[in-house]
Amino acid sequence: MKSLRYTGSLLREFASRWGSYLLLVELVAAVTAGVAVPLMRWATAGILRRAGIPYLGVDNLTTVVLRHPGAAALLLALLLLLLVLVYLQFAVLLGGIVSIQQREGRGVVAIIEEGLADLRHLRPSSFGFFVVYLLLIVPFAGVVVQSALLNKVQIPTFVLDWLTAKPALAVLVAAFYLGAAYLGLRWVRVLPNTILRDQPLGAAARQSWRQTRGRFWRYGWRLALLTLLSTVVGWAWSSGLIALQTQLDRTAFAFPAAVVLLTLMLAGQTLLGGATSVLYLLFLVAPDGLVKASRPIPAKHHWLRRIVVVTSGGAVVLIMAAFGAFYMTGALAEHPLTISHRGVDAGNGVQNTIPALRKTAALHPDFVEMDLHETKDGQFIVLHDENLKALAGVARTPRQLTLAQLKRITVRENGHHAKLASFDDYLAAAEALDQRLIVELKPAPGDSPEMLAHFIVRYAKRLQRDGDRIHSLSYRLMTRLHKRVPKLYAGFIMPFSLVAPQTDLSGYTVEETTLDSELVDTVHARHQSVWAWTVNDSDTMAQMLFEDVDGIITDNLSDLKRVIAEQSDHPSYAQRLRLFATTLEDFGDPVIGN
């Protein structure tokens, strides 16, 4: 009951000055997204280009530090600057929120000046704590600064899937998140103590620990209630508009109604995102309850301010309406390639086996993606894992067995069983089915020095003739392949993308967690392709359509084809509205983050 009354007080406060609150968060977001982040991306790309570093990922960070120490130092300086900007944005937002809530009447310039003055608390001795604190306290509101670097400070989906599939590791992951939640709530007063009460970070952390003693569950319930309220309102708004459009699709004015309703959906969710940001910030300022202003200054409604607000608001609505008309006019001009991951669809067989290939090919994917390892005798076996333990119960690697030995092994998965296949047999089966392949070369420490050369001599011309493509986690391997056979598609798999790559390869396979429109646009500008990997739920599939990726790799091929059909095969306006609703989180309020 107390949490409900507290939430009600936040809502009343927001309603009393909603225009000022929204103007503050949207102005800060616009400056961050429109100025700070583009400059950071431009500087990062310039450093990498001047140093001749083709890409930046977790697999080559050590190489960058050892071989390009100057560039590494500049990149570290940019990262520190980014964290300073995060702190500054918090300072401006918290200072502005308090000014509005206390009716102090301070201007934007005064708030910014005070935020800049607060930067003195970011001493080198406390900077490490601020980084840890940032990762713990921000998740409930998303990453405050819209940055391709900070947005990727997260565990990729495929790693989480792998961890949670193992009971012991799943318990550790759950314990980590519970611990992070506990520390985040115990340190919830750190930034307000530092920014609003002028305390050093260390002292602010100790003070927060004392202030939150015995209040963990109270704060947890209040945050959960705010999150639930935002989620329910957003869902109800979108669902109501979709239901209304479903009825209006039967009328003669379905199209204009669809444009209006899409505009309302986008505007409503944008306002909801801003309101949610304000509520979270108010909680951060006063988690125990709002303090009334001692001597409130009446709000001033200057005529020029009204004109600016009304004009800018009208322009935003017109832009939204124009987008709605464009979106509702027709289907996708092009749809991404449908790519079956490991040659299966929803567990219809054992991955990377010929029986599964035949079943999946009957669904007509654009490509079947499969994996290759070199064997002891220099041949190639179709297999993903570097050890046969998971699928065959045999603790051996492909490099320890000959091709003949491997072909006698039975692998089991999803209630199915099949024999391992040589690449010659798998490729012949694919050609008989007229099914194009994406071959993932999986180099291992025990591979022969001639592995790639053998692959090129035996298969390059045949794969090129069939329209097949190659990709690999090894950048070095793909650059060598691209130089030897420039007309054969050679792509680099990036399990964790920090910035857009700058290579001469054909394209990139990017883990969907770290894929964004900025990366896609940059890669497309270089006339290269981007495939999203591995996308298994319908909502994320829909988001990838809006990211304009060139291909989507999935374990659930049938679901992917259905999602694409909903947008491509003359969908109803209600279907288009429903599909767009699933992607709104990518267009959410910038303060909350993408």
Structure, described:
The protein is α/β, with parallel strands linked by helices. The chain contains 23 helices and 12 strands. The protein has helices at residues 2-16, 18-51, 61-67, 69-101, 108-117, 124-137, 157-164, 167-186, 190-196, 201-211, 216-248, 254-285, 303-329, 354-361, 389-392, 403-407, 423-432, 451-466, 475-484, 517-525, 538-547, 557-568, 573-581, and strands spanning 337-340, 367-374, 380-382, 410-413, 416-419, 421-422, 437-441, 469-472, 490-494, 507-511, 529-533, 551-554. It has an 8-stranded parallel barrel with strand order 1-2-7-8-9-10-11-12, surrounded by 6 helices. It has a two-stranded antiparallel sheet with strand order 4-5. β2 and β3 form a beta hairpin. α4 (69-101) packs across α9 and α12 (254-285) packs parallel to α23 (573-581). It is globular, with a radius of gyration of 27 Å. 38% of the residues are buried. Residues 140-149 and 586-594 have low confidence and may be disordered.
Residue windows where pLDDT falls under 50 for at least 5 positions? 140-149, 586-594
Q: How many E strands?
A: 12
From the N-terminal CA to the C-terminal CA, the straight-line distance is 32 Å
| Largest sheet features | 8 strands, parallel, barrel
Q: How would you name the oligomeric state of the polypeptide chains in this document?
A: single chain
List keywords for this structure.
594 residues; alpha/beta; eight-stranded parallel barrel; two-stranded antiparallel sheet; globular; disordered C terminus
